[in-house]
Specification:
The protein is an alpha+beta fold and about 230 residues long. It has one domain. Helices cover about 20% and strands about 25% of the residues. The protein contains four helices and nine strands, in the order ααβββββαβαβββ. The longest helix is centred in the first third of the chain and has 23 residues.
Length: about 230
């Protein structure tokens, strides 16, 4: 019974100390509260400083384009499952989400001066009419930018005139484009040289990523604005 008094004093001291710690944690100003409780259970060697995320620019490019240039990123279709995408100046011109892509060639025509979309269409190069494609690209005005992304089969219905028209737009690979190849290309009406913006992978059973199709292609970059477009 003689110990009851001292024990009560000890219990009172412990209670007061715990109350002071709790109050200081929750009312101790900036950096207090839950974050300070966490610090009680995290040793300095186990704490990790999160690395800042890399900044992304228009269309997800890793760096901004120079002035008077248009930022773009495009992806060809993957096999016959995932549709292509064409992004320009942070605007998605063609994609499965927009429901304006299809088997064959997916083409977006853009004003080379303003960067505004003129028209976007998909042309079935397996079962479609190639004349629809010819009517689309024959009357292009000087300075029009042409973005092309393949999906499934881009070439079965191609004829010599089609290949020549794309070659005149700056393509160097269209002459070799074949059944189920992957192809992305940016050209322009009135160019004097071959376009630097083109990628092409052949359909080959020895190198295909998918059964019956090569890998999808991704291409991004900065296109100088055209000085004139009629």
């Amino acid at each position: 019974m003689r110990l009851a008094g001292p024990l009560r004093i000890v219990a009172l001291i412990v209670t007061v100390a715990l109350t002071w710690i709790i109050v200081s944690i929750f009312l101790g100003g900036p950096g207090s509260g839950f974050s300070r409780i966490q610090q009680l259970f995290i040793s300095p060697e186990n704490s990790v400083t999160a690395e800042p995320r890399a900044r992304k620019y228009k269309c997800g490019l890793p760096q901004p384009c120079p002035e008077e240039h248009l930022a773009f990123r495009m992806v060809s279709g993957a096999a016959n499952v995932i549709g292509p995408k064409i992004c320009l100046e942070d605007k998605m011109l063609m994609s499965s989400v927009k429901d304006n892509v299809g088997r064959g060639l997916n083409i977006a025509l853009v004003n080379g001066v303003s960067g505004e979309l003129i028209e976007a269409r998909a042309f079935d190069m397996w079962a479609g009419d190639v004349n629809d494609l010819l009517k689309f690209i024959r009357p292009l005005h000087e300075g029009t930018l042409v973005f092309v992304a393949s999906y499934d089969d881009p070439a079965t219905k191609m004829n010599e005139e089609t290949r020549k028209l794309f070659s005149d737009l700056g393509s160097k690979n269209v002459k070799d484009l074949a059944f189920r190849d992957s192809w992305v290309f940016v050209g322009a009406k009135g160019v004097q040289n071959k376009s630097p913006f083109e990628q092409h992978v052949k359909n080959s059973r020895h190198t295909n990523k998918y059964e019956g199709w090569p890998e999808a292609l991704e291409m991004e970059g900065c296109i100088p604005r055209r000085s004139t477009a009629s």
